[in-house]
Amino acid sequence: MEFISPEDFLEIRFASILTDFDRKIVCELYQPLIGHSALAVYFTLWSEHERYLDVFTHDHLFAVMQINAGAFTKAKAALEAVGLLKTYYKKENEIRYFIYELYAPKTPYEFFDDALFSGLLNKYLGEKEARRLSTYFQDEEKPQDYRDITASFIEVFNPNFDDPAFKLGQKNDAKGRVVGKATVSFDFNVFFNEIKDKGALQQSALSQPQLTEIERIAMLYGIDEESMANLVLHAYHPEAVKEERVDFYRLGTLCREETKYKNVWKSQKGANAMPTSSAAIAEKIKLMEESSPKDYLRFKQNNTIPTKPDLVLIDDISSKLGLTNPVINALVDYVLEVNKNILSRALTEKIGASLAREQITTAIDAMNYLRKIHNSGRRSAKTVTPEPEIAPVPETVPNSKPDADFASLMDKYKKKNEEGK
């Protein structure tokens, strides 16, 4: 994820033909999934493309929308996740350049035929309202007791396909309708292909709530789809009723065992020190956003394997409070920082509940909130040393170098990522 500055240049492109009917689809079907801010970004990019074909800065876009870089980045990510937008980035001679490519939404049929999209719509609007929308977009009934007397192409034009005109094979550069692919962090196609290769069970054997929990656990421990498929098979009991066939307690235990002996880079001593420079904080936020809580905790304790109680704690935080992985990472980071590197269950659950009530979903928002309550506690104790808020960092990251310890951590982290590709 690249942080965006108002001075960064952008260009808007259409990957597909977009129509007025697409506006209705995005507004009616996609808005409940992505929210009004992402909807506004999509329509604004659409409008700006029609007005401007040249390059301009994000500052213009932010002024038009009355939005800041953080809110724009969050809205943009939602559009990317559902396949309405692709972002391309390039940096040359210290000039940062973004290309935003707009894609058409799915047709109503494709939308409701996709279990992921229709499932989210059911979740956010309720089954009754989702069904009403499906009815709203349904096809009109074909005429009954009527005979189809429509003229055919051949009848009207009588084409001679031996004519050289039909064999030119001209290159077609015309733009068509292109629907972007939704980005999902856990690829169930790979997961089920692995299960199918084992010949153990059918896809229909697992319910949607079970699949959601499987995805949550996989992302929590940083386990890939193939490995997760094998672990699920070991925790699967075919004789039980459908909703109880997966023993999630055993699955969690297997996941902890699976990740116990994974090869992870060795960090330098002191790599878990809190960076102080703005660039280092930006890198740390990126690490929180991209790492599973299992891996992040391991990074924090110098590549030492997290203990079972700590892993059970972050699992409980994830399942009971519904916190996202980046927020869990920020929470773990904060508790270790203020509690002398002790991950206390009572303190972690108490602060985690506050984050859940605030409905915080990103690492930077979590860090700002935790910094705020920390400062508040210090003021109540009559300590007058304020700490800076972190929010401005992603919007304009200075060219300062990160702390040596944290730079070492990031180098190791990037090397690990490159080896895994």
Mean pLDDT across the residues is: 77
Helix content: 55-70%
Q: In total, how many beta strands?
A: 4
The low-confidence parts are: 261-278, 382-406
**Side-by-side strand order of the widest sheet:** 2-1-4-3
Task: Determine the number of helices (DSSP H or I, runs of at least 4 residues).
Answer: 19
Number of domains: 3
Main β sheet profile: 4 strands, mixed
| Portion in beta strands | 5-15%
Secondary structure class reads mainly alpha
Q: Round the Cα radius of gyration to an integer and report it.
A: 26 Å
Question: What characteristic shape results from the CA principal axes?
Answer: globular
* SSE ordering: EHEHHEEHHHHHHHHHHHHHHHH
Cα distance spanning the termini: 17 Å
Write structural notes for this entry:
With 421 residues, the protein is mainly α. The chain has three domains: 9-108, Arc Repressor Mutant, subunit A (Orthogonal Bundle), CATH 1.10.10; 188-258, no CATH class; 278-420, no CATH class. The chain is built from 19 helices and four strands. It has a four-stranded mixed β-sheet with strand order 2-1-4-3. The radius of gyration is 26 Å and the shape is globular. The model is unreliable at 261-278 and 382-406 (pLDDT under 50).
In short:
The chain has 421 residues and is mainly alpha-helical. The protein contains 19 helices and 4 strands.
Keywords:
421 residues, mainly alpha, Arc Repressor Mutant, subunit A, 4-stranded mixed β-sheet, 19 helices, globular
How are the SSEs ordered, and which strands pair?
Layout: E1 9-14, H1 20-51, E2 56-57, H2 58-65, H3 69-81, E3 85-92, E4 95-102, H4 108-113, H5 115-125, H6 127-136, H7 153-157, H8 188-198, H9 208-221, H10 225-234, H11 248-258, H12 278-290, H13 293-300, H14 308-321, H15 325-338, H16 345-357, H17 363-380, H18 392-395, H19 404-420
Parallel strand pairs: 1-4
Antiparallel strand pairs: 1-2, 3-4
Helix pairs in contact: 1-3, 1-5, 5-6, 8-10, 9-11, 9-14, 12-15, 12-19, 13-15, 14-16, 15-16, 15-17
